[in-house]
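Example record

One chain of 647 residues, shown exactly as stored in the release files.
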Amino acid sequence: MSDRRHAHPSANAFSMFLSRGDLMELNKRRGEERFVPAGRYAQLESAIRGMLCGRSIPTLLIYAFDHRTRLGPFLFSDMALIPGAVWSLAAALTSAGIGPVRSVMQMWNPRVLPSEALIDGCRPEMLLVSSMQIHSAAAYQLISDAWKLGQQRPLVLAGGPKAIYEPWDFFGLGADGCQGADVVVTGEEFVLLELLERIVHFRGSRETMRDAFQRARQEGALEDIPGLVYRPDDAPGPPEYLVSTGVQRLVRDLDELPMPLVALETVEPPHRNRTLSAAPLAAEQLHRHASIMTVLPTRGCRFRCPFCPIAPYNQFTFRHKSGERLRDEIAAIAERTGIGRFFGCDDNFFNRREVAAALLGAMAGGKVDGKPFRQAVAFATEATEADVYNNRDLLPLAREAGLRAIYFGIEDLTAQLVAKGQTPERTEIVFQQLTQHGISPMPMMIHHDQQPLWSWGDLKGLLNQIRFLRRAGAVSCQITLLTPAVGTKTYQKHFTDGLVIARMGDLPVEDRLYDGNHCVATRFRQPWRRQLNVLLGYAAFYNPVNFLRVLLKFDKLWLERVYFQTMGMLGLVKSIWNARGTFWRMFRGPIVRHSQPPEPKYPLRAPESDIHLQDSVAQPGNLAQPGNLAQPGNTAKPKRYTSACCY
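Predicted structure tokens for this chain:
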């Protein structure tokens, strides 16, 4: 269930990889084993609908959100954007006949409690919680609240980026360690549907989804579904270990995923009540509360930055939708909801020229209520500077397709941190051409320990680069601090080198501070200085002087520049206020650092059958764990449950 977000050696490779406590890159499959068979997704949808035969499964889907993380120049956008996890999961459930579904976004509904939620007068049979790492505290609270219902509680499923990389953290909650998710989905929509198909098969006429899950788990019927983590039983207290079914398989053709239109009628209207509204928000009313809708054109990136988990998560593949599917999806959403701004959750939209050309070509021919995309749609996406530079001849077509902004992961203009083909010369050329076509350049920078605040006569300093980007034509600028990310090659090294902060005075460094906006890893003895550098960098870009410059300089992006300067200054002031407590503790100290990488909360073991892990790739140096090994020669096929009967 992944938001805004992974010859046959040892069968137990993945189990050993995690049981040793290595929080490095995710394991991967090889070749065609990375993908599910074409058409299998639709088969799962059909099988679930056939077994349900119209029987309802009230389902509560909550996108966890910790309001303490609202920092940075774009902190106002989070309230206006509908995250991809909301509509993608709601669409997957609804298209498979599971429902009624109610989608709750905690940024809109911070007080809704699963224990008090009723959908069409019924308690939810399932609770799905999707969470990023920085919102994990809110996710744990939601799960613990569901446990207040005792035997009446729903089946609890957790997913999202946090679940993918640290699934064990969703178990052992509460004072006695009994609380937690029933199962964590460490993959995408396909994994969720495989799980639900199996549970629905086991569901008797008077049973709940939780009853069916427990029986399916007891009979070993979940062991051949890659991408799950769950307790082996419901014994009192925290689990001794967790069962991991290995690395997910990916849907290669993103056109197989359901259209989001079916999910637009599931959104809970904004309020501050603990209970749900009598009915979801009408799709035609969404534009009154949200102005940006996320879409998913592509997944994957050809670059393998050591601090980024994107490429390993996608198992070093690149997947995409067809141009026709993306065009129809955007047009249908815009006409139905009145929302005309779209953000592409791409890792690198221009990753492949032929794909980018096909997507843009189809979008350029799209219309919304008779108007071409150029006039009716404002589309933004992410890309690398090198790829846009190499494909800058596509920019006229991109503007016809409605492209209005590109967010660049430039990181560092001097390529000290990472070299992705970015140079000052290319930056000037790309930004100039984007401006000529009315497309906003939106650079994203990373402030790292090797970068000074200011340098003399070159572009090494942070302020030097910010000044250069503004003069080159950047409309906005995001600055983050280099932060250790689970699932990357450099994650452990940050800890072993003694860079990662464990406590700032009386404040423990929790997940919410791993947002790139807080200095949680540095070699400097006074981390508050690095934190101050970021604020000074923002102030160098967003300030009244630059606002006046923008007002007096007219170009095709004049309105965008005025808007982002205004919102950037407001965001800077609000960020300073919101982070004042953390900054003070960082300044006052004492600063306590980690001496070694964290261990998983609970060890992960492969199921006894261990069949589905035979095509996982072993990691060099993995040591076998007694009790985890598959038996040599065990080639029996796992059970399959494909009945399509009504219950």
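Notes: The longest strand covers residues 403-411.
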